[in-house]
Amino acid sequence: MPDTEQQSVGIVQTQRMHFAQPLALRSGASLADYELVYETYGELNADRSNAVLIAHALNASHHVAGRYADQPDNVGWWDNMVGPGKPIDTRRFFVVGVNNPGSCFGSTGPMSTNPETGRRYGPDFPVFTVEDWVHAQARLADALGIERFAAIMGGSLGGMQAIAWSYLYPQRVAHCVAIASTPKLSAQNIAFNEVARRAIITDPDFHGGRFYDHGVVPTRGLQVARMIGHITYLSDDTMAERFGRLLRGGAGYGFSFDAEFEIESYLRYQAEKFAKYFDANTYLLITRALDYFDPAQGHAGDLAAALAGTAADFLVVSFTTDWRFSPQRSRDIVQALLRNGRDVTYAEVDAPHGHDAFLLDDPQYHALLRAYFERIAEEVDAGQTATIEAIEAIEAIEERA
Amino acid sequence: MPDTEQQSVGIVQTQRMHFAQPLALRSGASLADYELVYETYGELNADRSNAVLIAHALNASHHVAGRYADQPDNVGWWDNMVGPGKPIDTRRFFVVGVNNPGSCFGSTGPMSTNPETGRRYGPDFPVFTVEDWVHAQARLADALGIERFAAIMGGSLGGMQAIAWSYLYPQRVAHCVAIASTPKLSAQNIAFNEVARRAIITDPDFHGGRFYDHGVVPTRGLQVARMIGHITYLSDDTMAERFGRLLRGGAGYGFSFDAEFEIESYLRYQAEKFAKYFDANTYLLITRALDYFDPAQGHAGDLAAALAGTAADFLVVSFTTDWRFSPQRSRDIVQALLRNGRDVTYAEVDAPHGHDAFLLDDPQYHALLRAYFERIAEEVDAGQTATIEAIEAIEAIEERA
């Protein structure tokens, strides 16, 4: 067993980039004068060909790996995936994590001050789509001098962003890695999002999204929203195994509406924790971006047509017990790509943990990612060798001249 | 095609029965001086052997079939199942529908006045279990002079009551019909109930269950609770077919958090309708009864042991697309009964409608129920003939004497 600490990227620092040029959005609105926070791990190689972009899902951030000097317990959300010797090996790759605009972890979002009014944006923050986020990420890549990513990768909503990159910027993505994702939300998915949003919006402390001005937080709504979400992240099997019908107090029922079952107290605890750090307007905004994602929409429902312009190689991964975005959704992506003659690797991982499996370190899953990124690293090395050979050839010609 | 109106039980009247003797509950509490409302359809035969009890689920009532003279649109919730010529043929059976105590359709419940305080019960109404409801129903049966039911039947929570009858009063149930039911809730089932309860309890208009005294109703919480429940009643397939990603306004997104998708507006409509007639304390109470139902609990988790004392014949029905109480749960019941040598008929109906299928008139499902109740009717007829022959024999002996 390798020492876990040795495999960590260690202490990391969040960086911040300012964008003065307004970002035009799909809705017709635009975001003026915004900032993105991001983190990087590893070193960008000489020909800038080893960059990997990690896109986050609903409640994650740019803090993908490592820990902060002043917050040693705040470990990145995909720390088991990214680090020296890990599936995405930071000794070989330059990994970029970025917090999307509209989120609540440091990039410009509903909690930020609207330069036009001097007040917090709140409900005036524009509605973002997955494609809008990709355009914002592309600008960050420009600023970092990354013309083409070795891979763009994400799970769930992050996978949607990776897919959107593949059709919005086909020449900038060598490999697209979409895990536990879907080409569009189902009616049931939208329904769960809608209930969560109703819980937030109808909380009297929401104040139409201007709760910042009232010094309150719609805690009750956020908690209910989180509980609903959490249920859909876990498989029925995992819940049965971890909690079953276990009672907190031991053997007997309390004949009350208090948290008597372990699953009740677990959900309440998760919800309370979440409501302390997550922004309610961000919850609305991100769930709406999920609802809206549907690349086939502009192509009469034909996903293959929507993905016709892609040029990347693809890795698509699903989990057998994921009932939020089931394997069939990933198969739909694979079929649409194959119809376009793309190079696709597809794996349906037999893991018990439901949608959340993409964040966990199932051995089969991690072995797969490790092997796939090993292949990418070899391509990067080969490309670098080719570049070095080309430079040497030019130098030799110049010397002869 | 038979005329639907001819197959209706027609105009029905709700009846009311007063119980002066306190009802001792499983929690140790008791309910003093209560009333039950009920309806009956058809005629009780001479030897009182053709009675069928229908137990209701979360949001239904004693109004099983027919309509009221002054509310012609208020059709009973299982009107497609119960009536002349329908699967439960009221020309042959005497059908009883009863509203359980704690519910909000006329029987004593949280909205009723507590005789001890002169105030509405609200949160002081005792917590009921499925078994407590069965004891209350048994008292009603006593008062109606029904010693033994030809069948006790219910779907979902109603099926749990039918099962509870079979082990609490084995000699009083000839046939137990449990549809879309389960021997216990899973952690995921309890989790959904808990979120619904949190939405209600944390609504500031709930006032700890004393909202009646404040002249308000926790509408927001009830609506969110109903939306969550509703999602679990429908199958993913049904939602996809009925709503998919259809937009209300037509082609384009509105880039807002309004109801844009048809599924959003459908859920909001259902929720608004529900919150107008359903009592918040009742919602808590009934979901808790669901959570608590677990006959195996008192038998070290052995369901077969819990059902060892049953004597009825059983019909167990599940639906392939029901993900709330999946067919596996029904199979668990069947296996426990078979281990006790019971006579069990089991059907897994291939219907697309999820948990709600038990309320719909899928032809295969209704044909099955019709055939099963035809068999019961024949047993009833045979028993009656035997009784009449016995009476005639006694009369003949008396005449000779």
Please provide a brief summary of the model.
2 copies of one chain form a homodimer. With 401 residues, the first copy, chain A, is an alpha/beta fold.
Which short descriptors sum up this protein?
alpha/beta, homodimer, 401 residues
Structure description:
In chain A, the strands form three sheets. An eight-stranded mixed β-sheet of chain A has the order 1-4-8-5-9-10-11-12, sandwiched between helices. In chain A, α2 (157-168) links the parallel β9 and β10. The first copy, chain A, has helices at residues 130-144, 157-168, 187-201, 219-233, 236-242, 262-277, 280-292, 303-306, 327-339, 363-400, and strands at 15-19, 23-24, 30-31, 34-41, 51-55, 82-83, 88-89, 94-98, 151-155, 175-179, 313-319, 344-349. In chain A, 37% of the residues lie in helices and 13% in strands. Chains A and B meet through α3, α4, α5, α6 and α7 of A and α3, α4, α5, α6 and α7 of B.
- Along the chain, the helix and strand elements of chain A come as EEEEEEEEHEHEHHHHHHEHEH
Q: How far is the N terminus from the C terminus of chain A?
A: 55 Å
**Oligomeric form:** homodimer
| Overall residue-averaged pLDDT value of chain A | 95
Number of strands of chain A: 12
Give the overall shape of chain A: globular
Largest sheet data of chain A = 8 strands, mixed
Work out the helicity level of chain A.
25-40%
What is Rg of chain A? 22 Å
Give the spatial strand order of the biggest sheet of chain A: 1-4-8-5-9-10-11-12
